[in-house]
Specification:
Blueprint: E1 4-5, E2 14-24, E3 30-40, E4 50-53, E5 58-64, E6 67-68, E7 74-77, E8 80-83, E9 91-99, E10 109-113, E11 116-120, E12 140-149, E13 155-158, E14 161-169, E15 172-183, E16 190-193, E17 196-203, E18 209-216, H1 225-242, E19 250-256, E20 263-264, E21 269-273, H2 286-301, E22 310-311, H3 317-335, H4 338-357, E23 369-370, H5 379-396, H6 398-412, E24 416-417, H7 419-430, H8 439-442, E25 448-456, E26 461-469, E27 484-487, E28 489-491, E29 501-502, E30 505-506, E31 510-513, E32 517-522, E33 530-532, E34 542-545, H9 549-558, H10 562-586, H11 594-603, H12 611-618, H13 623-630, H14 636-653, H15 655-664, H16 675-691, H17 697-709, H18 713-724, H19 729-742, H20 746-758, H21 764-772, H22 782-795, H23 797-800, H24 806-819, H25 823-829, H26 841-856, H27 862-872
The chain binds (3S)-3-amino-4-(1H-indol-3-yl)butanoic acid (HT7) and zinc ion.
Length: 873
């Protein structure tokens, strides 16, 4: 396969200053006329040919300055339009193409679904609309005229401000949009259809009134206000925290039902997967509300980090994605609970990114080469990319970080930038050499930090020795030590932080580990402290320490850092789970850690008022956490059994407090999605989950009662989730009831699919296969595929990893089926295989065989071919 390499980057030979698009909509024969003002790039090669990108395009005509080009002046294929001898000064290029939006099942470019037209141009979708210099460093001002049948597409939207609209004759209407902000083609968008509008206004910091509009299917208007409000809150927050104001007359969000990812930040016209817009108490869970708020914020924040300042090339993807994730995380932290948001983010980082980073698909935050850019929208680019920015802030401090961001916005507004240009802003304002810091962008793999501690009672010193090692990853056999910010506290027996003194002077709490081994000798330490390391998860590393379970249980109770209070309990639980897995595989009795019950009991104590934090404390490490801790020769069944046994053990020890908490935490009054109410429900569900552990009849009865009496979707779905784990009549009855109630709402049927696909039960695979044959399933809709097949592959460790290999074969088979129609979604399904090499030999062999069968299939798309080749390494 052809690799694109960062090292080969060259500026474009031509630039495009303006784009006048005329899109004449037709379900099968949409005609696109693009008038482009083109000029040679002074930074490009002289006398170069003009080579435009295409993808499955049909050329109708091409003209330069009004004169149509003869066939011998061009070279044309569906993928390319080359003009060997274009004018050497500015010229107007007019290209007419014809496309079939109905046949576009890949959902990239212009596609038609449910009688609406939508575009998706990131990363390389614009070239499926017209031939273009489809690269993010070519910035143009767009004017877009859209014409379509008035009855089917009364609504005609594009980027920027509306200039004109009216009848176009023959039952058709038109609209003209103008976006004054130069943008790369991946931010172009067009939406046409018959949708309902829910709107409001926002007055910016400087007093401009902006229309804020959310478009949804008719009849779903009552599910739009939460997203609308989230937009306005995001706008205000970006003004207050980052000093960024919105810059058009209107900001639009459109909800669509067929969408490859979560949402897209097109300038002024964000397009969203409807799953991340639509919310009402009866249809959305607390988790849905939180996701909607976060994704609305994320896409809105791209207006400055991504749109006003964009990426020079796709290797710089983390420049916009890592930074925008960091910004949306901060927004949620300010809006909800900061410690809980941090814990949730770290759980997600470990589950997805640490898993990726330790397997065959590991790659740096800024990759060096790619075969298919769609496969690099990864947890590493997004979530580790955000962690890198968080570390930068910890290392240089909040004031310098703010000054660096301000400089970045001032200096680079309107440009297509690199990571080097971004980091240079922080180096400049802080006066720091950030050369070694850049390793976080270059080196793949999660650094492993090992801590040894020693207390010298006579000298009153406490020594912390930190060794770091970055493991080898594909293509990177050797690594250098990174700059690892270790935020540290020493907690005394009274629970208070001791002063940190090194070499007679106050020190810390941020210690930058820059060598393979660093020793810190803390002085004037009157008694042996408990070391609280990497507070607030100050670096994305795997930590192992010589702290005892006593130390950790003490920190779980007393650490002033809430993240480490949570982490300490998790570490004790993880140690116990690993010991249980070892014992189980050796046929030995399960090792117990009764003190864990004390830590979990605190979460359910009536005196605990931070319910969201308590719910995190009560949640055991996931099966994936245990698998990663074990690292190799992983047996998912043994892990599942060990975790279930620990849960049951805790449930038995805490039966009284759990029941009391469940009763105490019932909802009073009507449903509200606010953080405090959602937190109470989260802890209530956690209590229920323990009470029903192992299918305990009393717990199952409570879950059934909660399901039957539910007045909101959170309670209903959580009760169903608990019931789905019990092999009981109540389970089947509730699943049937849920289907009957919500069969006309695909987003709710997705929840029903997901619950069944994630059940760790031996008949799950048969059930998933059967569900795929029902009318509710539609393989052309990515949400359906993700809820059923994606959830089975990536959210069901025991059944995907069935020892007979049928789970692997199933996911591979669906990926092959989708390879031709939607390769992007097919490739993502295969992400389920990202940790296959860590499995025990029998499963490893079966997983490899499934991957090899995909690799050998004819007609593999670049997306699927790239994933299987790299997965097989
Ligand atoms: N920038 C977007 C990422 C994206 C995407 C979205 C929908 C369909 C295909 C896509 N390819 C890339 C979303 C974001 O990160 O904000
Ligand atoms: Zn993004």
């Amino acid at each position: 396969p052809q690799l694109v390499r960062l090292a080969d980057y060259r500026p474009s030979d031509f630039l495009i200053d303006t784009v006048d698009l005329d899109v004449n909509l037709d379900p099968h024969a949409t005609r696109v006329t693009a008038r482009l003002k083109v000029r040679p790039n002074p930074e490009g090669r002289e006398n170069a040919a003009l080579a435009l990108d295409g993808d499955e395009l049909k050329l109708v005509s091409v003209a330069i300055d009004g004169a149509e080009l003869e066939a011998d002046a061009i070279e044309v294929s569906p993928e390319r339009l080359s003009i060997a001898n274009p004018p050497r000064g500015p010229f107007e290029l007019t290209i007419v193409t014809k496309i079939d939006p109905t046949a576009n099942t890949r959902l990239m470019g212009l596609y038609r679904s449910n009688a609406s037209y939508t575009t998706q141009c990131e990363a390389e979708g614009f070239r499926r609309i017209t031939y273009f210099l489809d690269r993010p460093d070519v910035l143009a001002v767009y004017t877009t005229r859209i014409e379509g049948p008035t009855d089917e597409t009364p609504l005609l939207l594009s980027n920027g401000n509306l200039m004109e609209t009216g009848p176009a004759g023959r039952g058709r209407s038109y609209a003209v949009w103008h976006d004054p902000h130069p943008k790369p083609s991946y931010l172009f968008a067009l939406v046409a259809g018959d949708l309902a509008k829910v709107s409001d206004t926002f007055v910016t910091l400087s007093g401009r009134t902006v229309a804020v509009e959310v478009f949804v299917e008719h009849g779903k208007e009552d599910r739009a206000p939460y997203a609308l409000d989230a937009i306005k809150r995001s706008m205000r927050w970006d003004e207050e925290v980052f000093g960024r104001e919105y810059d058009l007359d209107v900001f639009m969000v459109v909800a669509v039902s067929h969408f490859n990812m979560g949402a897209m930040e097109n300038k002024g016209l964000n397009v969203f997967n409807d799953k991340y817009v639509l919310a009402s108490p009866e249809t959305a869970t607390d988790g849905d509300y939180a996701n909607i708020e976060a994704i609305i914020a994320h896409e809105y924040f791209h207006n400055w980090t991504g749109n006003r300042i964009t990426c020079r090339d796709w290797f710089q993807l983390c420049l916009k994605e890592g930074l925008t994730v960091f910004r949306d995380q901060e927004f949620t932290s300010d809006t909800r609970s900061r410690p809980v948001k941090r814990i949730q983010d770290v759980r997600a980082l470990r589950a997805a990114q640490f898993a990726e980073d330790s397997g065959p698909l590991a790659h740096p935050v800024r990759p060096q080469a790619y075969a298919e850019i769609n496969n690099f929208y990864t947890p590493t680019v997004y979530e580790k990319g955000a962690e890198v920015i968080r570390m930068l802030k910890v290392l240089i401090g909040p004031e310098a970080f703010k000054a660096g961001m301000d400089l970045y916005f001032d200096r680079h507004d309107g440009q297509a930038c690199t990571i080097e240009q971004f980091i240079a802003c922080f180096a400049e304002v802080s006066g720091r050499d950030l050369g070694q810091f850049m390793l976080w962008y270059h080196q793949a793999g999660t650094p492993e930090v090992t801590i040894r501690t020693a207390y010298d009672a006579a000298a009153k010193t406490f020594t912390v020795t930190a060794a770091q090692r970055v493991p080898a990853t594909p293509g990177q056999p050797t690594k250098q030590p990174a700059v690892v910010p270790m935020v540290t506290g020493l907690v005394g027996p009274d629970g208070a932080d001791m002063p940190l003194v090194i070499a007679g002077a106050p020190a810390g709490p941020v210690f930058a580990l820059t060598e393979a081994e660093t020793t810190l000798v803390f002085e004037q330490v009157p008694v042996r402290p408990a070391a609280s390391l990497f507070r607030n998860f100050s670096a994305p590393v795997k930590l192992s320490t010589d702290l005892t379970d006593d130390d950790l249980l003490f920190l779980a109770k007393s650490d002033s850092d809430p993240f480490n209070r949570w982490q300490a309990g998790q570490t004790v639980a993880l140690r116990n789970l690993v010991a249980r897995v070892d014992a189980q595989r050796a046929g030995a009795p399960a090792p117990e850690e009764p003190r864990l019950a004390e830590a979990v009991a605190r979460a359910f104590d009536p005196s605990e008022t931070d319910h969201a934090f308590a719910a995190q404390v009560a949640a055991l490490p996931s099966e994936g956490d245990v698998a990663r801790e074990i690292g190799e020769d992983v047996d998912p069944d043994a892990i599942h059994a060990a975790r279930a046994a620990l849960k049951l053990d805790l449930a038995r020890r805490l039966a009284g407090p759990l029941a009391a908490a469940f009763e105490r935490l019932v909802d009073e009054g009507p449903y509200s999605p606010d953080a405090a109410s959602a937190s109470r429900r989260a802890l209530k569900i956690s209590a229920l989950d323990y009470l029903a552990a192992g299918g305990a009849p009393d717990g199952v009865a409570r879950a059934k009662a909660l399901y039957d009496g539910a007045t909101n979707m959170t309670d209903r779905i959580m009760a169903l989730q608990v019931l789905s784990l019990s092999a009981s009549d109540a389970r089947d009855a509730a699943l049937a009831d849920f289907h009957d109630r919500y069969k006309s709402d695909p987003l709710l049927i997705d929840k029903w699919f997901l619950i069944q696909a994630s059940a760790p039960l031996p008949d799950t695979l048969d059930r998933v296969r059967a569900l795929m044959t029902t009318p509710a399933f539609d393989i052309r809709n990515p949400n359906r595929v993700r809820s059923l097949v994606g959830a089975f592959g990536s959210g069901n460790p025991t059944q995907f990893n069935r020892a007979d290999g049928l789970g692997y074969a199933f996911v591979a088979e669906v990926a092959r089926e989708l390879n031709g129609t939607n390769p992007q979604v097919a490739a993502r399904l295969l992400g389920a295989f990202k940790t296959w090499r860590a499995l025990e030999p029998v499963r490893r062999g079966k997983a490899e065989a499934a991957l090899r069968a995909v690799a050998a299939a004819p007609g593999l798309s670049p997306d699927v071919g790239d994933i299987v080749r790299r997965a097989l390494g």
